[in-house]
Amino acid sequence: GMFWVGSKNVLAVFDRETGKVIRHYEHDPDNPHSFTRCKSIRSIIEDRDDPNLIWIGTHGGGLVKLDKRQEIFTTYKHDPEYPGSLSYDVLRIIYDDGRGVIWIPTFKGLNRFDTKTEKFTHYFHNPDKPESIHSNFLVEAYQDSSGRLWITGKFGISRFDEKTETFKSYTGENGFPEGALFIDIREDDEGNLWVSSSSG
């Protein structure tokens, strides 16, 4: 029942019954388990399997896990020396698919994060492979009522095929505005997808 509020670089907990902020977290350079240093907080979700875990997507600070029981933060950031790390530290949306996986679109590829093994799988655009994701500049992850995962970003949207780990992409070739940034995607009661973009 608490509100988790992200601001420029502070994570706060708001108690709506008292109307007060009862806790706040910020980066402490002397504490490796404190909140990450970042430009802003972009996404906050509660783990679907464990309500004691909060996942936070940041601009510049990577992916962060908060264990509420111990008030310990774990940060996952891009490491150029380790190919298995997060592909980029600028995140907008993080999405928990309810099966132990967090999907993380970044401005440099899509990341699949297994919360049990804490390993990242990357998906990048390859112009020589039409089954790859449509772009590396990605914004939103959304699961429709049929359980299909959609990713929006620059130039179009892609649907993920879990069995083959490939993508079906929809771009200007399918009638979308050429060169647009596709920002958000939602499904209506009839199963139609509505996609907002920089071109309408």
Q: Explain this structure to me?
A:
The chain has 200 residues and is mainly β. Helices cover 0% and strands 46% of the residues. The chain contains no helices and 17 strands. The protein has strands at 3-6, 11-15, 20-25, 40-46, 53-59, 63-67, 72-76, 95-96, 101-106, 109-114, 119-123, 138-143, 149-153, 156-161, 166-170, 182-187, 193-197. The strands form five sheets. It has a four-stranded antiparallel beta sheet, with no helix packed on it. It has a four-stranded antiparallel beta sheet with strand order 8-9-10-11, with no helix packed on it. Strand 12 and strand 13 (149-153) form a beta hairpin. The protein is globular and about 50 Å long. The model has no long low-confidence stretch (mean pLDDT 94).
Write a concise synopsis of the structure shown.
The chain has 200 residues and is mostly beta strands. Helices cover 0% and strands 46% of the residues. It is built from no helices and 17 strands.
Descriptors for this entry?
4-stranded antiparallel sheet; mainly beta; globular; 0% helix; 200 residues
Q: Characterize the overall form.
A: globular
The count of strands amounts to 17
Helix percent reads: under 10%
Radius of gyration: 18 Å
Largest sheet: 4 strands, antiparallel
Mean pLDDT: 94
Q: Helix tally?
A: 0
Structural classification: mainly beta
Walk across the major sheet and give the strand order: 4-5-6-7
Share of β-strand residues: over 45%
In sequence order, what are the helices and strands, one letter per element?
EEEEEEEEEEEEEEEEE
The N- to C-terminal Cα distance equals 36 Å
**Poorly predicted sequence stretches spanning 5 or more consecutive residues:** none
